[in-house]
Amino acid sequence: MHAVVGNCHIELAEGDVTKQSVDAIVNAANARLAGGGGVDGAIHRAGGPSLMQETREKFPDGCSTGSAVPTSAGDLPARFVFHAVGPVWRGGRTDEPAKLASAHTRCLELAVEHDCDSIAFPALSTGAYGYPLDQAAEVALTTVRDFLAEHDRPSLVRFVLFDAGSYGAFARVLEEMST
Ligand code: APR
After folding, report:
1. Which of these, 35, 23, 56, lies nearest to 128 by C-alpha position?
2. What is the number of domains present in the chain?
3. Global pTM?
């Protein structure tokens, strides 16, 4: 499924974000950039040890929640990995939507700064961090749409959803946005 915003495309795919041939792959990292399970584990396994080495050298203080930092992509089929830190869901009491939105916006800014025309996001915060899928999909897709409406890059933003449930949640929101 996909939607057009100006000259750009938002695309939904079911699958593994580490397999995407795009300019930049987004990691669902933690603020210490310490690695972990889920997307983070898969990205570091597929990318190889150079990713963690570069992350430690360049960002010893980690990355704040709601932001993202760039590294090269090691063995992944991309030029960059943007390590984004989404919020832990605490019932909506700690400004989670704004933090989730800014994590996406920062990745899109990094894409522009690094001349990336295509970027693949997982569903940030919806696994270990417990963000309700429907609400995360709404924040992620509206944030990307609003960014693309004001910039003409990256021309492809792909959300790579790991299972049918998360694909369905994103598809419902994208369909509503397109009507
Ligand atoms: N490709 C795409 N999506 C994936 C993949 C994959 N290879 N693996 C898991 N997912 C999905 C999950 O099903 C979930 O919907 O990505 C979403 C995000 O899940 P997490 O990876 O758990 O990310 P998040 O909720 O942001 O939690 C981040 O988990 O692994 C740790 O170090 C990480 O502490 C950080 C926290």
Report:
1. 35
2. 1
3. 0.98
Ligand 1 centroid – CA 23 distance (Å)? 20
SS3 letters for 89-150? CCCCCCCHHHHHHHHHHHHHHHHHHCCCCEEEECCCCCCCCCCCHHHHHHHHHHHHHHHHHH
Look up 95 and say whether it is catalytic: no
**Which of 16, 27, 39 best tests ligand 1's pocket when mutated (most atoms within 8 Å of CB)?**
39
Structural domain of 116 = 2-178
Please state the length of the chain: 179
Q: Measured from the CA of 130, which atom of ligand 1 is nearest? A: 25
Q: What is the pLDDT of residue 154?
A: 98
Q: Which residue, judged by its Cα, is nearest atom 24 of ligand 1?
A: 125
Question: pLDDT (tens digit, 9 = 90+) per residue, 83-125?
Answer: 999 999 999 999 999 999 999 999 999 999 999 999 999 999 9
CATH number for the domain harbouring residue 9: 3.40.220.10
